[in-house]
Amino acid sequence: MNKSLCSLLVFFLFILSTPAQEKQKDTTAVDSVKTDLTKKGVVIKDVIVEKREEINPLAPSKAAFFSAILPGLGQIYNKRYWKVPIVYAAIGTGVYAYVYNDDLYDRFRTAFKRRKAGFIDDEFYDPNNSGVVPGSPDLSDTALQDGQERYQRDRDLALVVTIGLYALNIIDANVDAHLRQFNVDDNLSMDFKPYLEYNPINANPNYGMALTIKF
User: Any signal peptide, and if so, which residues (predicted)?
Assistant: First the structure.
């Protein structure tokens, strides 16, 4: 059970760490004018207007807040619908492991306490003579004590893993919202090249290097 829960946590980390960068430029040819107009010797053929998506600085906070209220809601806000089943499968598995181990812990603890009180009517004692050895306890007092300690550890581990998965769900929504607004516009560029210009006074050439940054 311990290895399964740890494997689930690692798998969830791997899935949610999938790169989420997207281009935020919406290049739409609003007006494509092909009119062969002549203006000062320049032929104008196409006019293309680029529409860029505005950055919402509150989007990461909103996504994290939504996922904190309801797991998966932040992923829906980010339009990462494919992550929602993964979120619920991971957290649901953690919750199931917690409930499963907590139930067994309660059963073993109740039986152990009744044994110590002198009763022999617990579910592990075989009061109906139908066990492995009729009339004898199926599990000894030591086995009951070991069992409740084991299931208590597994229950606590399941709780920690579930809380970790819940936190990762919030972190993923926040980081994903940040990356979705990361500017990867093609117009962002840096160009470093030599240049040559002539002095307008004495017509002597001037050499140098030019650094051009486009936004």
Answer: 1-22
Interhelix angle 141-180/59-69, rounded to 10 degrees, is: 150
Write out the two tokens for 78. Answer: 């980010």
Full domain range(s) for residue 162: 2-28+48-184
Provide the β-strand partners of residue 207: 196
Q: In 3D, which of 91, 63, 76, 69 has the Cα closest to residue 166?
A: 91
> Helix or strand or coil: residue 60?
helix
Q: Is residue 21 part of a domain?
A: yes
pLDDT tens digits along 5-32: 666 566 655 555 554 444 444 444 444 4
Predicted TM-score (pTM) of this structure: 0.63
Is there a domain that residue 159 lies in? yes
| Cβ within 8 Å of residue 15, ≥6 positions away | 83, 86
Looking at the structure of the chain, the number of domains it has is: 1
* 205, part of any domain: no
In a domain, residue 56? The reply is: yes
pLDDT tens digits, one per residue of 119-163: 888 888 876 666 666 667 888 899 999 999 999 999 999 999 999
Distances (CA, A) of 104 to 97, 99, 144, 155: 11, 9, 11, 9
Q: Phi and psi dihedrals of 58, rounded to 5? A: -90, -5
Residue 182 and residue 125 in contact, taking contact as beta carbons nearer than 8 Å: no
Distance of CA 13 to the CA centre of its chain: 7
Q: What is the mean pLDDT of residues 181-189?
A: 59
CA distances from residue 7 to 13, 68, 170, 175 in whole angstroms, order as listed: 10, 23, 20, 23
Task: Tell me phi and psi for residue 173, to 5 degrees.
Answer: -60, -40
